[in-house]
Give the backbone structure.
Amino acid sequence: MTINDAPREESASPPRHSSDRIPVAGPWITELEERYVAEAARNAWYSNANIWHERFERAFAERVNRRFAMALPSCTSAIHLTLAALGIGPGDEVIVPELTWIATAAPVTYVGATPVFCDIDSANWCISPQSAEQRITPRTRAIIAVDLYGSMPDMDALRELTERHNIALIEDAAEAVGSRFRNQPAGSFGDASVFSFHGSKTLTTGEGGILVTNDEALFTRAATLRDHGRKPGDTMFFNHEVAFKYKMSAMQAAMGLAQTERLNELVTRKREIFSWYRERLAGCDAITLNPELQHTFNSYWMVTAIFDRATQRTSSTLMPALDACGIDTRPFFHPLSSLPAYSAHPQTHSARRENPIAYDLAPRGINLPTHLRMTEDDVHRVCNALQPLAT
Ligand SMILES: *Cc1c(COP(=O)(O)O)cnc(C)c1O
């Protein structure tokens, strides 16, 4: 794959992606990111080792209306740390939606607890509060809600549900930076929210993640756990417990700050790419694109097409057909309970019946190219390949 060099000057549009293949995801990096990262490489040492982390964490916390933010190596580590800081462990259960990346659920196993899979809501593709409620037992300690592909779950219902049962609500906003629910930003819901800055995400630091919260006690506990059990500010290298080491580098934080300053531009571009697809596929009744319900603002991390049952198309036939046209796609997430990774899980045999919407939707969906350097012509090329398959 060949990619044009980024231009030296700041530009309102990304440099065109010159390859014949259309990749599914990828960032938009400008001179601002290059400058901040170079500055960090020069000056983020000695007494300045943490200045870029502090700037990035402050800017990001402000964007998502949170008091505290902690930059981390990944979203996976952010979820692990959140569960550990909440004291969730062996014997506990944590409810997660069936349709999400496995990173939402895997950290539940890291802390020795059990993930419990619930269904999604067909209207917004996110966790169904009704289905989650049916999975609550005396062992349930938390619900992890996922803002799938930039869509938002019914946060009002989830807040009411978790408060009524006195369990934690964790928002996995890895895919939704810039989205909003009732005008509140993704990342502002529940006891804590987490984001991913992986290279495929809308805002990237290459690899990275962040934990945001308004809960000072939770934040302080996470700060100890992420630094080998040292209390924040400890200068005696005195470890109170065996814990973890989770921190991003100053160069990554510098890139994160530049991307945060450009967040509106990044989200505007994602929405523009979605609007090109929506216009072009408007007459195509057999394809449903990402939902954007009333009171919701979708940042459309990944444009996703669900094929009508009547077409009998599935991701395993659609993906090779598009691949042959030079178009990279991804399958909609598989129901977690259907994966070999969970073949010994208690719900392996019951989940298809318990979570019918997830099992119905997943095989019929694919993620279309939504990388940040796409042109309208690229979108037309994808749609030209897609439309004959939608009959
Ligand atoms: C990308 C993603 C993650 C994991 O992010 P990493 O930074 O790769 O650990 C977690 N949850 C969801 C929903 C994701 O899409």
User: Anything to note?
Assistant: The pocket of pyridoxal-5'-phosphate is lined by residues 74-76, 100-101, 103-104, 146, 172, 174-175, 196, 198, 209 (CB under 6 Å). The first strand starts at residue 68 and ends at 72. Confidence is low (pLDDT under 50) at residues 1-10.
